Amino acid sequence: MHEDPISASLNLQHHLNLLSNWYDNWRVKVNQSKSLHTTFTLRLPPCPEVFLADIPILSSQSVKYLELTVDRRLTWAQHVREKKLALNARIRLLKTLLTNKLTKLNIKLLIYKSLIKPMWTYGLQLWGNAKKSNLNKIQPIQNKILLSITNVPPLIFLILLSTQT
Fold first, then answer.
1. 0.70 exceeded by the pTM?
2. Transferase: is it a keyword of this entry (predicted)?
3. For the chain, which residues make up each domain, given as ranges?
C-alpha cells in the first residue's frame, strides 16, 4: 500500500519475482494469461506493468474473485449489475413455479430462500456498503419476486410495502 503507484508496482514486482522462483523450485505451472491485476485507487494514472516469469500480467478495471466482482474504485456497481442479471435469469427459470396458484406459499418461500435469496446475499458483508443507488437496483427485483410468490395484486402490494417502510 503506497501513495506512489510506481513504488507500489515495484513492491508487487518484487513479490512476483519471489513467487516465480518458488513456482520454479516446486515445478508449479502458472497460467499467466488467466492472471489479472487491479490497482485499487481513486486516481486516474495507471500503474506500471508487472511481470510473472517475464510475461506481463494484464491490468484490469475489475476482477472477479469468489463470485464477487471488485472494481478499481470499490463502487460495486459492476457486481450489482451482474447480480441483477443473474437474479432476473433465475426468476425466469422459476417463474412457472412461483406464479402457479396451486403451489403452496410455504413451497414458494422455500424456493425463494434456497434458490434466489442466496444469490443476492452472498458476500453482502462486503458489497452491502455500496452506494444507495447501487443497492436500490436490487430492490425492484425483490419486490417482483415477492409479488409473484404471494399472488397479491400489485396495487395492494405497493400499499403494504409503503406502510412497512
1. yes
2. yes
3. 5-60, 76-164
